[in-house]
Amino acid sequence: MTLVRLTGVSKHYGNVIALREVSMDVAAGEVVCVLGDNGAGKSTLIKIVAGLHRHDSGTYEVAGEPVAFGSPREALDRGIATVYQDLAVVPLMPVWRNFFLGSEKRRGIGRLDIPYMRRETRDALLNMGIDLRDVDQPIGTLSGGERQCVAIARAVYFGAKVLILDEPTAALGVKQAGVVLRYIVRAREQGIGVIFITHNPHHAYPVGDRFLVLKRGRSIGYHPKSEITVADLTALMSGGAELEELAHELERESAEG
Ligand code: ADP
């Protein structure tokens, strides 16, 4: 089932065209990677999907219905959740408190149901394969990778169908990035549609089902895994494909000339 579909979507900021007729779609249980260098349009794309910005033209559909979200809340209500790189957590508060931040469970008037929230947090994390014995520890004591995983588990627990992950591995070492990548696979196994933003083809390739490569706001490749190798992705990203094409053209011209 297709959860999210963008067709020919464009967006400009003043004179800058940030996205130019970009199309992509995400189905349940699928990881779509969006790759590109700085300024490629990745953030603009996810801000549109997440309801932070509106597209200028083209169509954006959720479960087959055209939408134009006015706020991230509206997107969230349709099951589209975003986990940003700089997570909004309260470092000194326990893991369970951060997990339920803004959605606290109460017993009667005002009183927090702490045992319930502790239990649910532990179970939700276990369900996604994180065995965190102590959910009372301040979230600030977890590693960056673990914090990302808690944020992903949280979005899934609160009903996300589509998860947008904004450079979740960018600030992490190899081991921690591995923790998050495993977690992305877990989310996919649970039937979540994942949009994984990264500029690292080596992080994208092992977990991705499809790959959208953006360059200066344009789509320069949109391929299922069966059609593309990690070397192709790297070449596309670095502009190697363009250089190769130019080299071929020059060869042809000099052969002809
Ligand atoms: P990426 O996330 O791939 O680095 P962005 O979507 O942030 O790319 O940026 C795409 C283009 O749009 C860039 O040229 C950037 O400078 C421009 N841009 C992004 N946000 C704004 C904004 N709020 N106002 C003006 N220009 C912007």
Annotation, overall tally of beta strands: 12
Q: What is the domain tally?
A: 1
Q: How do the helices and strands follow one another from N- to C-terminus?
A: EEEHEEHEHEEHHEHEHEEHH
**Fraction of helical residues:** 25-40%
General shape: globular
CATH architecture: 3-Layer(aba) Sandwich
Could you give the order of strands across the largest sheet?
Answer: 6-9-10-3-11-12
Q: Could you tell me which ligands this complex binds, including any ions or cofactors?
A: adenosine-5'-diphosphate
CATH fold topology: Rossmann fold
The top level CATH class name: Alpha Beta
Mean pLDDT across all amino acids:
91
The number of helical runs is 9
Give your account of this protein's structure.
The chain has 257 residues and is an alpha/beta fold. It has a single domain (2-89, 161-256), classed as 3-Layer(aba) Sandwich (Rossmann fold), CATH 3.40.50.300. It is built from nine helices and twelve strands. The protein has helices at residues 42-49, 72-77, 95-99, 114-127, 144-157, 174-189, 201-207, 230-238, 240-256, and strands at 2-13, 16-27, 31-35, 57-62, 65-66, 80-83, 106-107, 111-112, 162-166, 193-198, 210-215, 218-224. The chain has a six-stranded mixed β-sheet with strand order 6-9-10-3-11-12, sandwiched between helices. The chain has a four-stranded antiparallel β-sheet with strand order 2-1-4-5, covered by helices on one side. The longest helix has 17 residues, at 240-256. It is globular. The protein starts with a strand and ends with a helix. The mean pLDDT is 91. Adenosine-5'-diphosphate is lined by residues 13, 16, 18, 36, 38-44.
